[in-house]
Structures are given as C-alpha cells and as structure tokens.
Amino acid sequence: MAVDTDQNAVDATRTNASLNNIESNLGIYKGSLDDILHGDYPLTQASFVLANILAPVIIKLFKEGLAKTLKPDGIMVLAGILENQAEQVITAIKTSGLRLLQQYQIDDWVALVVTHD
What we know:
The chain is of the alpha/beta class. The chain contains four helices and six strands, in the order E-H-E-H-E-H-E-H-E-E. Helix 3 (55-63) packs parallel to helix 4 (86-95).
C-alpha cells in the first residue's frame, strides 16, 4: 500500500508501479496518516513502513501516530533526513516507543532503520 497527500506523487507511484509490473499488487491512494489510522484503507499496520521525506515532516508524523502503523515485529525505514536533523528524528523515534536499529549516511543524507522496543 502506498499513500501520499500529493497527487503528483500518487501519479508517479502509479506510473512506476506499472513500469515494474506490480500495479495489481499495490494499492495506491491519495490520503494522509490520519486516513490510514482511521481505517480508510485496507491496512492500518504493516510489516514494512517507508517514509522518504524531510525530517520536520517525519517528526510531525510521529506526533500524529506514525509508530502505530508498524506491526510489532516490523521494520520502518526513514529516509530523506539531513545529517544535522537526524538527532531530532531519533528523539521522535524513541519518544514514540521505537528503537533505532541502524543508521546509514551518504554525504549529508541519513536513513534510519527502526523497530519496536
């Protein structure tokens, strides 16, 4: 399942899913985290959650309940984080009851892999 608030991102996801022949296996929706948590889509939790967006948005999403979308044995990957904002995201991770498994960095960009405590 893929959800984004930006229609252009939704359209690009549909195009990429089609090019990779996975469109029949992927529900693609325009919506929000709140929509997911309220059960507006087929899933409210997943074994794998990916958020590739800037740190301030990730932090905001954690305050809105992003951690609830991850199944107890799941893995979440957070990417699109600038190096100088990584610690703020790590604090949000820990505050949400998740723990950092791994941190990757290329140049100024950081990706974090997390799971439940």
